[in-house]
Amino acid sequence: AESNANLMRTLQQLSGKKMTDWVSVRDLLDTLTIERNRNLKIPDWALPLWGNMTRVAKYTTILNYNSTLHNRFRAGLMIREILRHSDQVAKGESNVKLYMYGSHDVLIAAFASAFGVFNQLAVPSSTAIITELHEDANGNFFIQMLFKNDTTRKPYRLEIPGCEGFRCSLPTFKEIAKPYVVEDWRQECGLDPLPGGIELFP
């Protein structure tokens, strides 16, 4: 604990950014990582402290995404969207082949954690989680989930705990997702409904 406090004091002095908690360290590391990945010059003090910042950032990631409530609020609306579209296709109500969403690393981490496939590592830039809906020869629908964090190789197939190998039947997928689905965001946050019945992610 003392070494972490010393690290935060050192980083605050060197960066000029107020370090209030571990998340502050992670945010600073995120900024430096982006600059480094884009071949921008980073401060001379950053590299000697890189390992310690990475260690603290990893602890923050593990603690943040080990909570059902946290993952529900971070990824619940996206999970609901995927379930809704999958149901529509399975019922023959939609023939849309592809939905793509842009988001941040925090949503991807929460989404992966909700389904038990998060590797507890910081999510790199340009990462994608892919959920594919398939229909087998008997008319049964199932989900396959893939993870792409490297442009030089094909996506990794993910094995969702509670499913059969890399195939997760749609009913099982929905059951696993149930604790994380946010039906009414404003109600969950204790806010009044929007006027005129407007919905976010209707």
TrEMBL record:
Pfam families given in the database record: His_Phos_2
GO molecular function terms attached to this record: phosphatase activity
Top-level lineage group: Eukaryota
Family matches, as InterPro entries: His_Pase_clade-2, His_PPase_superfam, Histidine_acid_phosphatase
Family note: Belongs to the histidine acid phosphatase family.
Listed name of the protein: Lysosomal acid phosphatase
Source organism per UniProt: Haemaphysalis longicornis (Bush tick)
